[in-house]
Amino acid sequence: MRKCKKAVFAIFLMLAVVLCTFSVESHACTGIRLKTEDGNYIFARTLEFDAETLEYDLLFVPRNYKYTGQTTSGEPGMPWETKYAHVGFDPFGMSVVGDGLNEKGLACGVFFFPGYAGYKKVAKDDYPKTISCLDFASWVLSTCASVFEVRALLPEINVCGVEMPEWGYVPPLHYIVADDTGEAIIIEYTDGKLHIYDNEVNVITNSPDYTWHTTNLRNYIGLSPNNNPSIKIGEKDISQLGQGSGAIGLPGDFSPPSRFIRAAFFANSAYQGKDPDEGISVAFHILNQFDIPKGSIRDNEDGKVIADSTQWTSAADLTNRRYYYHTYHDRSVRMVDLDKLDLNAKDISIIKDIQKPGNITDVSEQL
């Protein structure tokens, strides 16, 4: 009996540690990739966070803009210049993007990875080739034109963790990179080691790691966009009550494993659109399934209620170099066409007040 009590206590202790690890960083993001009928690719994602914690702007970074990587000690890390202009959201308040698209049709997204992210420990001798976890997306978009180049360059740099002063901890992150050729990879740092996975199922969410999520897909191989046929039980014919019986069992909650399954189902079963314009529309419709109204998922951190909601949803047309988005308060879709910007501008450009409520169009007079 005493051994049993000790075992039970050990299990509860382990669960408490796990729950504490995840409760501080329970931010939910979902990413998908689509291929249109004419062979073009779309990358799209949602970004969830507590609105009181996160402020963000839309950022355009031209060519030849100078960056310096951050290090754990606060000393300067690797310097670099932007070879490629890019546009995206800056959720960190330090002129680096957490999601974006560059002039070559390369997209990169940052996703929370709590309980698993473990960046490289760096010494002063490593600083000339060191960037931080927060610098990562900006470094990718400003220096690489393809997934092939990202693969080649990643082993040559060190990615370290730096604390966000506003948050009080090092953000645990992993990343997705996709290009206009159809290549896409998931990048994860665990226990100080770099792992690169082909994004074979066109989806990314949060923890656990990518291989766990793809293994978990085996529990849902019965899901189908096609309705189930009727069956006979005894002497009675049993048929579906309505459309959608093939998706019975599709998880509907907002946990990362459930969102991964749901995203994999929609991203690989929905009609993808005949061209990029239709593909963008499909992407927003799919990601509507993951939109989180404020207050519907909550956590309590030191007596403060944290309520994540979908801050923005973005979609990148990798062929035409167009970046689309809408925000929590403004559901109208807006677009930035990189071909219309001055890629050699002298400085970055910012659109602020991106979170303010949008206009509602009154069409009463048309009736």
Description:
The chain has one domain: Penicillin V Acylase, Chain A, CATH 3.60.60.10. Strand 1 and strand 2 form a beta hairpin. The chain has helices at 2-23, 136-143, 147-153, 210-216, 256-269, 276-287; strands at residues 31-35, 41-50, 57-61, 66-68, 79-81, 86-90, 99-102, 107-112, 130-132, 158-160, 173-178, 184-190, 193-198, 203-204, 231-233, 236-238, 298-301, 304-317, 322-327, 334-337, 349-351. The model is unreliable at 1-26 (pLDDT under 50). It is globular. An eight-stranded antiparallel sheet has the order 13-12-11-8-7-6-3-21, covered by helices on one side. It has six helices and 21 strands.
Counting H and I runs of at least 4 residues, what is the number of helices? 6
How far the N terminus sits from the C terminus, by CA atoms, comes to 76 Å
How are the strands of the largest sheet arranged? 13-12-11-8-7-6-3-21
Helix and strand content put the structural class at alpha+beta
Helix content: 10-25%
Order of helices and strands: HEEEEEEEEEHHEEEEEHEEHHEEEEE
Number of strands: 21
**Structural shape:** globular
Q: What key phrases describe this protein's structure?
A:
eight-stranded antiparallel sheet; Penicillin V Acylase, Chain A; seven-stranded antiparallel sheet; 19% helix; 367 residues; globular; 21 strands; alpha+beta
Briefly summarize what is shown.
This protein has 367 residues and is α+β, with helices and mostly antiparallel strands.
